[in-house]
C-alpha cells in the first residue's frame, strides 16, 4: 500500500476559487446587525459586545494594517478577512473530503476515472460547501466572527484525520496538541470553535484510545490550553485604556483577578471580566427551560437548511415551496456521504458523523432559540420570537454538509455507472454531477452584496439629520452600529453623541458617556462633513452630557415614582404623576436631556420609544430621519408643518427635511432593489418610505406645487417596493 499524499495544491486551488467567488460578490462597505460593530472594533481595537471576541479584534486589526498599502477601504479589508477565512476553511474541508473518498476507493483500482473520483468529489464539495447560502452570504461581508471559527473547525478536522493516518508514527501526538490549541485559541474568538471536541474525542477512542494515557502528550495539551486562553488578557488590558467602543468594560483591578476569571471561564475572579466571558447580560435560561418547543427549534433548523441549496427558487422564507425537493435531495446526499465515510474507515466515519450531529442536532438543543423569526405561527407574540433569523449559527454545519453532499453525490455517480470501473458507464452517469452547480446558480442573486451600500448610506443619512454636537438616542443594533462604523472608520460626524437607550441600564455605559463627552475629550465638528443646512457651530459644549457624577448615576434604579414629580426640561416643566414607572435608562436619559438641552440638540431615532416613554412626544418634530426635541410650541416656529392623521399627524420641519432628503442624503441600495435578502431589516426602507410620505403630505399642507408633491409621492412608492422585499418579491 502506497503512502497517502494529500493533494495540497488542489486544496489551495479550491480555496482560491472560493475566494475569487467571494471577491466577485464582496460587499463594498458595511452592512446591518453586527457588521459595523465588528469592523469598527477591529479598526480601533475596541471591545465588542460580550464575550468581546479578542482574537477577532486583534486579527482584524493586524489584517487591516497589512492591507493598508493597497488603498482599500477599511470595510473592504475586513470583509476580505471573512472571504479569506471562509475560503481557507473550504481548502481544509477539501483535504478531509479527499481523504475520506480516497479511503473508500482504495489503492487497487485500475480505471483512471475511478481513481480520480476522490479529487472530483473534493472539488464538487468545495463548490457545494462554498456556495451554500449562509456560507456565501457570511463570507462576502464580515457580519459576524463566525468565518474565523469555521476556519478553525475545518483546520482541526484536517489535523484529526491526518493524525488518524499517522497515529503510530513518532511525533504524531503533536497533531492532537495543535488541534486542541486551535480549538481553545478559537474560543477566544467564539465558543463555536470548540464544537469539534466531541468528534475529536470519538476519533481518538475509535483509533487509539491509549493515547489518552500518554502523560507527556497530556502535559503538552494542558500547556497549549493555558497558552491559548491567555489571549483573553487582551480584554482587561485594552478596556482599561477606554477605547470609544468598550462594551461591558471588562476592567480588572489585579492581574490575579483577571487570570482567575480567564482560567475558570468566568466562574470566579474579576467580576467585570467574568461577566463578559459568561455573557451574563444576556441572561439565557438553563437548557432544561426550553424557550420554544424542541420540535419547533428543529423545524427552524430545517427552515435554514432549506435556504442553503436553492434560495432563489422561491421568495418565501418558510419551507414547503419549490425549494423543498432540492433540500430533500441534499439532505439525502449528505446522509449518503456519512454512510460512505464509514466505508472509508471507522475513524473517519465516526469523526464526520459526530461532527455533523454536533453542528446540527446538538447545536439546536444547546442554542435553545425562541420561536423562529419568520417560522413562528401568527399567534406567537414578537417578544417570544427571535429578533432576526439565526441561520449564521449553523454556518459550519452547512459548510460541512456541502462536502458531505458531494461525497454522497460521488457515491451516487459510481452506483449509477453500474458500480464497476468502466469508463463508458462513468461517462453516461456523469450528468448527475450537475447537481453540484445548483447552489451556485440559485443562490447567486440572494448572496451577492457587490453593490450594497444601504447600511452605510442609512447611517450617513441619520447622522446628517443631527445638528453639530447633537445627541441621538437609538433603540437597537441597526440604528446604532452603522453609526459607530461611520464615526470610527470613516470619521464622519464624530461630534454627534450616539446613546443606546438599553445600554443606559448598565453601570458601565453611562460612565463612559460622561467620560467621552467631557470638554477635554469631546470630538470636534468637522466642517468637511457639514451638510450645509445648519448654522455653523461657534464653539463646542462646555461640559459633559450630564452633571451627575459616576456615583450618582450608579445609584439610579428602576421603579415607580412615589409622588408627583416635576422635571424642568429647558423652559418647560414636564409633569410625572405618582405611580409612573420609569426605568433606570429612562431616568438617566431624562437627566441627560435636562442637562444637555441648550448646549446639545436632542434627537431620537424614532418618535415612538423613549420620547413617548418620557412624555415628550408633543415637543418632537421630524427632521430628516430623526425626531428632534424642541421644548416650545411647535406651531409657532417657522417651517414647521403638521401632517395629516393619515400619515401619523406628526410635526415635520419641512424646509430642513426637504433639504436633507433631496440635497444631502444618499440612497444607494435603498431606493431601487430587486431583492432585499434579510427580511428582519425591512424596517430600514420603510423608514424612507414614511419619510417621503410625510414630506409629500407636508408639502401639500404647505401649499407647494402639485408637481413637487407628486414627485415626493412617487419616490415614496419606490421605497415601498423595496420595503416589501424588492421588485422580485412583488412579481
Structure at a glance:
This protein is mainly alpha-helical. Helix content is 51%, strand content 5%.
Derived structural class = mainly alpha
What is the terminal separation in angstroms? 60 Å
Radius of gyration from the CA trace?
Answer: 28 Å
Strand order of the largest sheet: 2-1-7-9-8-11-10
Count of individual domains: 3
Give the number of DSSP strands: 11
Mean pLDDT: 95
Shape descriptor reads globular
List keywords for this structure.
single chain; about 725 residues; mainly alpha; 3 domains; seven-stranded mixed β-sheet; two-stranded antiparallel ribbon; 11 strands; about 5% strand
Description:
- The protein has 731 residues and is mostly helical.
- It contains 29 helices and 11 strands.
- α4 (74-105) runs parallel beside α8, α9 runs parallel beside α11 (215-229) and α10 (197-207) packs antiparallel against α17.
- It is globular and about 90 Å long.
- The protein is 51% helix and 5% strand.
- The strands form 3 sheets. It has a 7-stranded mixed sheet with strand order 2-1-7-9-8-11-10. The protein has a two-stranded antiparallel ribbon with strand order 3-6.
- It has helices at 8-24, 35-44, 54-67, 74-105, 112-115, 117-130, 133-139, 146-166, 173-187, 197-207, 215-229, 234-239, 255-263, 271-277, 294-307, 324-344, 346-367, 395-416, 423-429, 438-447, 454-464, 481-488, 508-516, 550-554, 584-596, 610-613, 654-664, 683-701, 706-723; strands at 471-474, 497-500, 559-560, 565-569, 572-576, 581-582, 602-604, 620-623, 626-629, 640-642, 651-653.
- The protein starts with 7 loop residues before the first helix and ends in an 8-residue tail after the last helix.
- The chain folds into 3 domains: 8-213 and 284-447, no CATH class; 454-632, no CATH class; 656-731, no CATH class.
Amino acid at each position: 500500500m502506497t503512502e497517502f499524499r494529500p493533494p495540497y495544491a488542489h486544496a489551495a486551488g479550491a480555496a482560491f476559487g472560493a475566494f475569487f467567488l467571494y471577491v466577485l460578490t464582496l460587499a463594498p462597505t458595511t452592512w446591518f446587525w453586527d457588521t459595523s460593530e465588528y469592523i469598527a472594533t477591529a479598526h480601533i481595537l475596541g471591545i465588542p459586545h460580550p464575550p468581546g471576541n479578542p482574537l477577532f479584534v486583534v486579527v482584524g486589526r493586524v489584517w487591516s494594517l497589512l492591507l493598508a498599502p493597497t488603498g482599500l477601504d477599511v470595510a473592504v479589508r475586513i470583509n476580505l478577512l471573512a472571504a479569506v477565512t471562509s475560503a481557507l476553511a473550504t481548502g481544509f474541508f477539501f483535504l478531509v473530503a479527499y481523504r475520506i473518498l480516497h479511503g473508500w476507493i482504495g489503492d487497487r483500482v485500475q480505471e483512471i476515472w475511478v481513481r480520480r473520483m476522490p479529487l472530483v468529489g473534493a472539488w464538487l464539495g468545495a463548490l457545494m460547501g462554498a456556495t451554500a447560502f449562509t456560507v456565501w452570504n457570511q463570507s462576502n461581508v464580515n457580519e459576524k466572527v463566525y468565518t474565523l471559527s469555521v476556519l478553525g473547525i475545518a483546520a482541526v478536522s484536517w489535523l484529526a484525520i491526518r493524525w488518524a493516518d499517522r497515529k503510530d508514527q513518532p511525533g504524531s501526538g503533536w497533531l492532537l496538541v495543535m488541534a486542541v490549541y486551535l480549538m481553545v485559541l478559537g474560543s477566544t474568538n467564539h465558543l463555536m470553535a470548540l464544537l469539534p471536541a466531541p468528534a475529536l474525542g470519538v476519533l481518538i477512542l475509535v483509533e487509539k484510545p491509549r493515547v489518552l494515557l500518554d502523560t507527556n502528550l497530556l502535559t503538552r495539551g494542558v500547556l497549549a490550553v493555558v497558552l491559548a486562553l491567555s489571549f483573553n488578557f487582551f480584554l482587561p488590558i485594552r478596556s482599561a485604556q477606554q477605547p470609544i467602543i468598550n462594551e461591558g468594560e471588562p476592567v480588572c483591578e489585579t492581574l490575579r483577578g483577571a487570570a482567575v476569571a480567564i482560567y475558570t471561564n468566568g466562574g470566579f475572579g474579576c467580576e467585570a471580566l467574568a461577566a463578559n466571558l459568561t455573557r451574563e447580560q444576556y441572561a439565557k435560561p438553563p437548557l432544561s427551560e426550553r424557550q420554544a418547543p424542541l420540535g419547533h427549534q428543529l423545524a427552524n433548523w430545517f427552515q435554514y437548511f432549506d435556504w442553503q441549496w436553492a434560495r432563489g427558487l422561491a421568495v418565501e422564507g418558510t419551507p414547503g415551496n419549490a425549494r423543498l425537493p432540492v433540500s430533500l435531495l441534499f439532505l439525502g446526499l449528505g446522509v449518503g456521504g456519512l454512510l460512505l465515510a464509514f466505508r472509508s474507515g471507522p475513524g473517519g466515519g465516526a469523526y464526520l458523523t459526530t461532527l455533523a450531529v454536533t453542528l446540527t442536532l446538538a447545536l439546536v438543543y444547546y442554542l435553545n432559540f425562541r420561536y423562529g423569526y419568520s417560522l413562528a405561527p401568527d399567534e406567537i407574540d414578537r417578544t417570544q420570537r427571535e429578533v432576526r433569523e439565526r441561520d449564521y449559527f449553523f454556518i459550519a454545519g452547512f459548510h460541512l454538509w456541502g462536502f458531505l453532499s458531494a461525497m454522497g453525490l460521488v457515491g451516487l455517480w459510481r452506483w449509477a455507472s453500474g458500480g464497476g470501473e468502466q469508463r463508458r458507464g462513468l461517462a453516461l452517469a456523469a450528468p448527475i454531477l450537475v447537481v453540484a452547480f445548483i447552489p451556485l446558480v440559485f443562490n447567486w442573486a440572494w448572496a451577492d452584496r457587490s453593490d450594497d451600500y444601504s447600511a452605510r448610506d442609512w447611517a450617513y443619512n441619520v447622522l446628517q439629520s443631527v445638528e453639530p454636537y447633537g445627541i441621538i438616542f437609538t433603540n437597537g443594533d441597526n440604528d446604532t452600529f452603522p453609526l459607530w462604523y461611520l464615526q470610527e472608520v470613516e470619521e464622519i460626524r464624530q461630534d454627534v453623541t450616539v446613546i443606546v437607550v438599553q445600554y443606559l441600564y448598565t453601570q458601565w455605559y453611562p460612565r463612559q458617556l460622561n467620560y467621552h463627552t467631557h470638554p477635554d475629550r469631546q470630538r470636534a465638528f468637522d466642517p468637511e462633513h457639514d451638510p450645509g443646512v445648519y448654522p455653523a457651530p461657534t464653539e463646542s459644549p462646555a461640559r459633559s452630557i450630564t452633571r451627575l457624577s459616576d456615583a450618582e448615576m450608579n445609584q439610579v434604579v428602576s421603579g415607580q415614582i412615589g409622588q408627583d414629580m416635576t422635571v424642568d426640561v429647558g423652559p418647560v416643566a414636564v409633569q410625572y404623576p405618582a405611580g409612573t414607572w420609569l426605568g433606570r435608562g429612562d431616568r438617566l436619559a431624562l437627566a441627560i436631556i435636562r442637562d444637555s438641552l441648550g448646549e446639545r440638540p436632542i434627537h431620537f431615532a424614532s418618535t415612538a420609544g423613549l420620547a413617548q416613554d418620557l412624555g415628550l412626544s408633543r415637543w418632537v418634530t421630524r427632521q430628516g430621519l430623526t425626531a428632534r426635541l424642541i421644548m416650545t410650541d411647535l406651531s409657532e416656529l417657522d417651517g414647521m408643518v403638521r401632517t395629516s392623521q393619515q400619515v401619523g399627524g406628526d410635526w415635520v420641519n419641512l424646509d430642513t427635511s426637504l433639504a436633507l432628503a433631496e440635497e444631502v442624503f444618499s440612497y444607494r441600495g435603498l431606493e431601487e432593489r430587486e431583492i432585499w435578502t434579510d427580511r428582519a431589516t425591512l424596517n430600514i426602507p420603510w423608514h424612507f418610505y414614511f419619510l417621503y410620505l410625510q414630506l409629500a403630505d407636508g408639502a401639500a399642507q404647505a401649499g407647494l406645487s402639485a408637481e413637487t408633491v407628486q414627485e415626493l409621492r412617487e419616490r415614496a412608492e419606490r421605497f415601498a417596493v423595496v420595503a416589501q422585499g424588492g421588485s422580485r418579491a412583488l412579481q
